[in-house]
Amino acid sequence: MSPGLRLTAVHLALFLTGMLVSRTPIMADEQRWLPVSQVMSELSANPDFVEALYRRLGHDPKAGGILGPEEIKRLRELILGKNFEALDLFPGMTVTGMGRAVQLAAAAMDASGNKADPQPERTEGANLEEELGLPATGDPPAPDAYLRPLGFGLQAGDRIDPVLANEYASSQRLADVLNRLSLNSPGGGKRYRVATGGQSVDAADALMEALMTSGHDLEVKDSRYFANFGDLIYRGRDVLTPFWIDTGIPVPGTDRTLLVPVSHSQHEFIIRGPVVDADLSFYFGIDGEAVFRPSVTRDQAWVMGRVAHRYRGTEAVEVTRLAGSIVRTYTAIKQRHRELPFGGYYSLGVCNDVNAMIEMKMHGGTSLFPLTLDPRFFSGGGEVDQLARSLPLDNGRDSEPDPRRILGSIPVANLTMLPLPSLRDDLETVSAAWRSGTLPLTGSDYTLIWAVALIAALPAILWLVRRQQRLIQSRNIG
C-alpha cells in the first residue's frame, strides 16, 4: 500500500456523497474495526464536529469543498434524524461510471482553468556512474510521520511498521536507484550506472542479479488487498472505509447485483542479504507514477491480504525487468501526452493494470479486476504496449463482467475467511452459480445509477485531484 498520507477527508466525502444519492443494499459488518455509522453516531453528539463537517464539505468546490447545498441539506436531515445506518451504504459505482466521472472531472478542471500540472519533460543528461550506496543511512520515520490529527478523536493516515522503518533508508535508496536505472533506453544513449560487487550495471534486473550473486535473496510477491480509501482511525481503532464497485453481475436469488470493495494490487520485492535488507512495492498510484516504492507502513486489518503468485531466482529477476520496462514506457507515454489529467491515472490504468501486465507475461492471463487503461495510448510496438493491448478491460459499455477476475481480486485464499458476512454470502452464491454454469453475466440497465453517481462524485474527484497535487508538490513526488 502507498506509504504516503492519503487524502482521508476526500474519501470520507466520497462515502457521504454516495450515501446521499444511492441506496445500496450491502451494509458494513462490525468486526474489530468500527463502521462509519458508529463513528458518526458518536461524533454527531458534538455540535462543534457537526458544524465543522458542514463547513469542510459544504464550501464552493472551487474553494476546496465537496457537497453542494442539496447534499448538505440531505446530510443535515440524516444527522438530525439520527439515520446513521445510511452511512454504511456505499456508492456502488460501476467501472464505466468511474471512467465517466474522471472525464467529467478533467473537463471541469479545464473549463475552470484549474488544469492538472503538466508532466515534466524528461531530458537526457551525461553518462553517470555512482556507487550503489547500500546500506543507506538515515533516521527511520517517526511512528506518527504519516498520521494527521483531524480533531474529535479522528486521525487520518497510516501507522508506521517498526520493522520496515528500520530499513526505510535502504529501501528508499534502492527504489530510487531502480527507478533511475529503468529510464535507461535499451537501445543505447546516455546511461546511468551503479557500481556494486566489483561490476557496473545499467538495468534494474541486472542490479537484482548482482545482489543475488553477492549472496542476497530476492522474493517477489504478487499481492492483493482491499483498497483503503479512508485510512481513518477513531480513538485508536481502525474505521472500515472501502469503496464498493458494482460489477453488474446479478446475485442469484436476489434483485441485487454483486458489489465488491475495490481491490488494490502490487508486486512486493523483498531483499535479504549480507549487505542490505529492503522492502519495496511496485504499482501505478493515484500520484500518476508507475514506480518502485519503499514499503514502510502497516495496513489496517480489514484490508486483508493474499499472495496470488510468488517468484524467486530467474523469475524474480524477470519480474524486475518487466517492472523496469513499465516504468520506462509509462514515462515515455506521459511525455507524449502531457494533456492527460491526474498524471494519466485511470487513462493509463489504475494500480491493477501494470500488475496485470506482469501476470499476463508470467502466466499467460490475468486474474485482476478492474482494469481501466485506454489501449489507444499504448500504440507502440514494445513489449509493454503489446501487453497493455492484450488485457481484458472493464471500462467499456460493452465490457462483460468476468467472474473469474472479480473473484481472483478478492484478497483471501478462501471465501470462508472473509470477515464481512454479507459480502461473503454474495460471493459464495455468485461463485457457486458461476462454477455450475448458471450465472447470468448481465444485470439491469444502470444508466440512471451512473448519472446520479457521477453528479455526486464529480466535486469530490475535483477536490481529490487538487489536494493530491498539493500533496505531491509538498513532498516532491515526481
Provide a concise account of the structure shown:
The chain is an alpha+beta fold and 478 residues long. Helix content is 40%, strand content 17%.
Task: Characterise this structure.
40% of the residues lie in helices and 17% in strands. The chain is of the alpha+beta class. The strands form five sheets. A five-stranded antiparallel beta sheet has the order 14-13-12-7-16. It has a four-stranded antiparallel beta sheet with strand order 2-3-8-9, with no helix packed on it. Strand 13 (278-284) and strand 14 form a beta hairpin. It is globular, with a radius of gyration of 22 Å. The two termini are 18 Å apart. The model is unreliable at 1-30, 59-68 and 444-456 (pLDDT under 50).
